[in-house]
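Minutes, methods subgroup
Present: GH (chair), OT, SY

1. OT presented the first of two proteins processed in the latest run. Sequence and structure tokens recorded below as shown on screen.
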Amino acid sequence: MIIQDCDVSGKVVLLRVDFNVPIVDSTIQDLTRVLRVIPTVNHLVSSNAKTIIISHLGRPKGRDDSLSLQQVIEPLSKLLNRQVSFIDDCIGDKVNTAVKSMVPGDVVLLENLRFYSEEELNDIDFAKKLSSVADIYVNDAFSCSHRNHASITQVTKFLPAYAGFCLQDEVNHLEEIISCKYKPTVAIVGGAKIATKINLLLNLAQKVEFLILGGAIANNFLLAQSFDIGKSLYEKDAENISIEVIKMAAQNNCKIVLPKDVLVAKDANYKLGLVRGDLSSVLDDDVILDIGSKTLDEIRKILLSCEAVLWNGPLGAFEYPAFSNGTFQVAREIAGLTKTKKIKSIVGGGDSLSAIHAAKINIEDFTYVSTGGGAFLQYISGDEMPGFCDF
């Protein structure tokens, strides 16, 4: 069920969001996750609901003032153009008293759910206490919906559950890609660990026409095809995974694209990138850290031929200036094609978002940038999303 189907007037709504945002010196560095839930909160306010917002922040071990959600109050109030009240607990007498004094249109933010270990333990009694003050539950935290946590799965046993606008947007955009609506579609997958992306790669190999691999994930595939990767990062015992994905791609007419040329490092500080014009010239003491110009040219040609692109994970060690070019150029290429309406682009994963910011590209230049990391991977992989069970 979706929030549009519910009459919330006069009702107390428990709204689960994801305010797990980067904070430095009490200042939020990226407001994306806060911005994404504003339409849902505005809808509840304009519908005369009493809105109680709950979220987690960080990984506290008990109460930790540096991870208090009070730090979100000021920017949230500005974005909503109304004062949001803060309660320094999420269950108990303080919350009960505050809710009783609420009037329609009021918005309250409760303290960090993870100050209680019961949240991550998926404790049903904790969920019962959370839900006891509300009439309706709304999940607008797509990025947390892959977790079996009390505020995600257990509260739905006590309250009728609905999906908020942010969660709906995430699902709708991702479904457009994985439903094979656009042809041809290219998926670009990078990053360090192939083990976390096995199902993602297998699922994409059945749905897209091109699967471009970069980062350490590509190294595993190069090894599986007997290329020398020197001292580059890879996962041991992952050869069978690579072979399985290659077979799946072949069965579904999906072309796997691996680096043709690379930039390597020899110094421990990764300050200097050395060009290896083809993979046969990679030396035993080389560390592959970026893609080269030939690979970039091939990626550009593929992007120009496609109607949609799904991007997850950097193509190199972009955090080092000498090895940022591949990831940054691909990001700029996708953004440019999106702005001229030549391609639909979906981006997901924390590292991809960091790369976009580092390249000084606006996230508005992409069709949609997902708020999810693990949830993005799990959904695209076709795995179960526990937070969706009652929608």
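2. SY then presented the second protein from the same run.
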Amino acid sequence: MIGYISDNLLIPILDFFYGLVPSYGLAIIALTVVIRLALFPLSAGSIRNARRMRIAQPVMQQRQAEIKSRYANNPQKQQEELGKLMKEFGSPLAGCLPLLVQMPILFALFATLRGSPFADVPYTFNLKVLPADQIAAVETKPFNTASHSIFLSATNHLPVIGSLEGGTKLGVGDRQTVSLHTKSGESFSSVLGGVDQGAAFQPTWKVTKGEGVVSVDANGTITALAPGDATVEGTIPGLAARSGFLFIQALGRVGFMGDGGVNWDIAILVAAFGATLFLSQILSGMGMPPNPQQATANKITPVMITAMFLFFPLPAGVLLYMVVANIFQALQTFLLTREALPENLQKILDQQLAQQAVTVGASATGGAPSDRLPFEPKSRK
């Protein structure tokens, strides 16, 4: 499903924007904004529900405890009253459905930006080599990789699949050649023969695991050398993987550290991601009573997620998308927090803010919250 969405929805949109402005960096930004606008109703529902639950949760918890205590011996009445409570304030799970609906599109967008033309495309084959006397008893089953859209030019791309007709189990001494082909069965090499500078898209092959178990040549022919497990990977260069945009040296560049030291373009993108994520979380609490636990999470979560990219690096093009998406999310959060609340929730929020003002005033004078009201003068001693 993710591949279908990528090939039939996201890549055509990408082509459209690249046709308007021949810049893959701008195409990423435009694609991100279009998808975020299309998903706006779903994500807005999640933000609204989170805001409402943050206000209603203390009251709901108190009411739920009272209902369970009052109708402990009457389960039917208990469920009826809990249902009324959910109808009054809404369900905490209501915000999950919009997130689940949009996940396939977001995963497809993520997969699109990790592949051609923004990054080199790997085809991975996990192999098992058996002794020659055992392979005869193994049932042969052809193996096909997932399809990847390979860009040969800004206007020419096609889905390419990697296949091993004899399957991924080989006997010692066996040889198999990986077949890269289109969905219609046309070989990738014949496609490249009709493309200008097609040699630039020839795949490179290497053994990434089990070098003593198998070998692979430049044509993708695998030779089984000894029993064991091995992995062979073929990589087709991405058209724009080495293209720059603004301060980004290459959209396909991966990793915080490079051969020449720190990749400062990646460092800036990772820092921008953390800053925009932190901003979005701060905006989500606008106009709300302070929540110490939530405030701590707002500080720690962006740091933890941002630090992940030091250990699980992503291509610069994907990081660019994530920064733009966070900016859009922060703007969306800001707008939605200014919406009027339902009357019952606004009343609860006013009470919470009033209680906060009393507590803060009492703390400032060293007294208990019940010592005086905010508008009363301080007592003289």
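Chair's summary of item 2: Residues 368-377 have pLDDT under 50 and may be disordered.
Next meeting: continue with the remaining queue.
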